[in-house]
Amino acid sequence: MDGISKKIDELQKMLRVVINGQTSLKQELLNEIRSGDQKLEKKIDDVHSELKSTRKELTQRVDSIGRQLAYLEESRITRIEKATIAS
Fold first, then answer.
1. What is the pLDDT of residue 87?
2. DSSP one-letter code for 77
3. Residue 64: pLDDT above 90?
4. Cα 31 from Cα 23, distance rounded (Å)
5. Is pLDDT larger for residue 87 or for residue 57?
């Protein structure tokens, strides 16, 4: 009976080592996932900021082109003025 108890104790110790190893591996994987998640969130925030900045620049450019076009329309000679000059 004493030999069987030793074997059971050894098996329990080996099982405990395997379980502890799996627990450590799980913790390492969770840490890597969290680290990757934080990096991904930072990159998403960077892209969002860049997109916001680009949108603002494009809006300013479109506004500038619109003002230029309005000025050109305003300063263009009308048909009546053209007819008056031609006569």
1. 66
2. P
3. yes
4. 12
5. 57
> Is the distance from CB of 77 to CB of 85 less than 8 angstroms?
yes
Residues 6 or more apart whose CB falls under 8 angstroms from that of 77 comprise 85
**Residues near 85 by beta carbon (within 8 Å), at least 6 away in sequence:** 77
Q: In residues, how long is the chain? A: 87
Could you tell me the pTM of the whole model?
Answer: 0.53
Q: What does the alpha-carbon distance between residue 50 and residue 12 come to, in Å, rounded to a whole number?
A: 57
Tens digit of pLDDT for each residue in 2-47? 889 999 999 999 999 999 999 999 999 999 999 999 999 999 999 9
Cα separation, 73 vs 87, whole angstroms: 23
Going by the DSSP 8-state scheme, the letter that residue 16 receives in this structure is: H
User: CA-to-CA distance for 48 and 36, rounded, in angstroms?
Assistant: 18
Helix and strand tally (H, E) in the chain? 2, 0
